[in-house]
Write a structure and sequence with these properties.
By secondary structure, the chain is mainly α. The chain is built from 15 helices and 2 strands. The protein has a two-stranded antiparallel sheet. Helix 9 runs antiparallel to helix 10.
């Protein structure tokens, strides 16, 4: 009951209309966010362009790596920790003599268990999936000649021998060997495997790098535990600093924007991870039922690429369909149809159920965010581009509403769809087809408003 009241209060806080001073500060916050984003982009390209700056940035990020790992783990562990803590508090608080002591130790225990669960899932995934993936890749590499020859035979059969000479020429072992030799030469030259000293240096650096990463992971685990155990304390300290620097109204707006950013990023990223895990499992089970090969490798690729909104499923479909197609062309076609159906189910049923309206963006702005984010920062930009755009969209929307309210104009977007003009004296919005349609529109608007009020009153009575 207490949680539901807190949620209602939070929702009302976002729905209320801030004062003039709050809106001015909100505009300032939006400007700071926009300028910061531009500076980050400029700094990113500066790092890419200038070697000295790049070396300094790499060194700086290397120092921060344990904390980045720790904060990332804390971000992923938080929902697990909250779930465990909630149920332990429900059973143990009524029988505990010291509530403060009990809450503290339950938090520590829940945090440690969540860390064990996360590490167990990741470790189990690596131990189970990596060997299977390596075996699959090795098999594909060793039998690539037979698989290509099988695809060419299938193509000759489908075309009923119309291009038989060309297909037989392509099946020539010399042609395939030359193509494989060119690939091998390219890989050898790219990795510098033809130089013995370079190989030894590469192996040595790799071992040192792995050891360094393992140490950072251990430090990151410790950081994540400390962050989750004392997260309320960190929140309180941060808010205390904000309210000491800014005025009360400005601090309220700042806290509201940060809370909204947390809701957007947390809901979207965690939701996409859960959604991708479900899609990967569904893909694996359906591939077993359909008798398709390379189930583990294909399901992992489909699940990982599904994290990327919109374009992720198509990015994952290309290599997986090719892998299955090389083994059995007909199965490759069946799998292509299956992936298309799976993504439709995900986009229309599973995804909306998990993510809901966590971003509040239309499909157009989602695509813009993915294209711009991916173009600037690659795969990471494609993932965080959508929640970043959602936050900017929210800030701009609040500022636009403020300006419209000051001008005594409606803030309802639907009223501007068929707008012809606004009466300067009455401030009424006039649709394209005149006053008759305006009366119908206003009547419909009042009906919708009455229904909303009635539904709200009904909910409050319940």
């Amino acid at each position: 009951m207490e949680n539901s009241q807190t949620e209602i209060k939070t929702e009302n806080r976002f729905e209320r209309k801030p004062s003039k001073g709050e809106y001015k500060f909100l505009f300032g916050v939006s400007l700071v966010v926009l300028v910061t984003a531009c500076l980050i982009i400029l700094f990113y390209f500066g790092v890419k362009r200038y070697d000295g700056l790049q070396d300094g940035w790499v060194k700086f990020m290397d120092i921060l790596q344990p904390f980045i790992i720790g904060f990332t783990m804390a971000f992923l562990m938080n929902p697990i920790m909250k779930f465990i803590e909630k149920h332990l508090l429900h059973f143990l608080l009524p029988i505990s003599k010291n509530e403060v002591y009990a809450r503290k130790h339950i938090r520590v225990f829940s945090t440690i268990v969540s860390a064990v669960v996360l590490l167990g899932v990741v470790g189990g995934f690596l131990v189970t999936v990596i060997p299977e993936m390596l075996n699959t890749i090795q098999y594909l590499f060793l039998h690539i000649h037979e698989q290509i020859a099988g695809v060419l035979d299938w193509a000759n059969e489908i075309t009923r021998g119309h291009w038989e000479e060309e297909i037989l020429g392509a099946k020539d072992a010399k042609v395939l060997d030359n193509a494989m030799d060119q690939v091998q030469v390219f890989v050898t030259k790219y990795l510098k495997l033809d130089q013995q000293d370079e190989i030894v240096r590469t192996i040595t650096n790799s071992l040192i790098g792995v050891g360094h990463i393992l140490v950072n992971i251990i430090i990151g685990i410790i950081v994540s535990i400390y962050v989750l155990v004392a997260k309320e304390k960190f929140k309180g300290q941060t808010k205390k600093i904000v309210y000491s620097i800014l005025s009360t109204k400005q601090a309220n707006v700042c806290v509201e924007v940060v809370r909204k950013a947390h809701d957007i990023f947390y809901g979207f990223i965690v939701g996409k991870i859960v959604d991708s895990i479900i899609i990967g499992l569904i893909c694996y089970v359906c591939m077993i039922i359909m008798g398709l090969p390379y189930r583990v490798l294909v399901s992992v690729i489909i699940g990982l690429t599904n994290v990327i909104p919109v374009f992720g499923p198509y990015i994952g479909a290309v290599p997986t369909v090719i892998i299955i197609f090389l083994t059995n062309p007909w199965q490759g076609i069946y799998f292509l149809i299956f992936v298309f159906i799976l993504q439709q189910v995900d986009g229309n049923i599973i995804g909306p159920k998990i993510l809901g309206d966590s971003t509040g963006l239309s499909s157009f702005w989602v695509i813009v965010a993915i294209v711009v984010g991916g173009g600037l920062f690659g795969l990471l930009g494609m993932l965080i581009g959508v929640p970043t755009m959602a936050l900017l969209y929210y800030l701009v929307g609040r500022i636009v509403d403020y300006v419209l309210v000051r001008k005594q104009l409606s803030t309802e977007m639907q009223e501007y769809v068929d707008l012809d003009h606004i009466d300067p004296e009455t401030k009424k919005l006039v649709p394209k087809d005149g006053e008759k349609e305006l009366r119908i529109f206003n009547k419909h608007k009042e009906t919708v408003k009455t229904e909303k009020v009635a539904a709200k009153d009904k909910g409050d009575k319940k």
